[in-house]
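Hi all, posting the design record for the shared folder.

TITLE: backbone redesign
STEP: 1 of 1
STRUCTURE INPUT:
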């Protein structure tokens, strides 16, 4: 995630810092940048998209095992009929 943020433009990193680190709202960030609230929201959405894509990409390239991590037989793991509950 840090690598993805490091690749962002200076403006996008500023948006990230103001919202995440300093806890400002989108409206406050927009005022700080001198843009409309809609543009502030759009900038944050762009940052969010880049970070989400980076996280998903790292999961796909993970050496970790895939699956639920639950060990043992799967028998009886599904929904149970009312009578047997």
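Okay, here is what came back for every position:
SEQUENCE:
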């Amino acid at each position: 995630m840090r690598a993805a943020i490091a690749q962002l433009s200076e403006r996008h990193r500023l948006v990230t810092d103001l919202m995440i680190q300093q806890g400002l709202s989108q409206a406050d960030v927009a005022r700080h940048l001198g843009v409309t609230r809609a543009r502030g929201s759009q900038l944050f959405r762009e940052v969010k998209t880049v970070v989400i894509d980076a996280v998903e990409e790292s999961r796909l390239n993970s050496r970790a095992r895939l699956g639920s991590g639950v060990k043992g037989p799967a028998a009886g793991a599904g929904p149970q009929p009312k009578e047997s509950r």
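COMMENT: The chain is about 60% helix and 0% strand.
Let me know if anyone wants the other runs.
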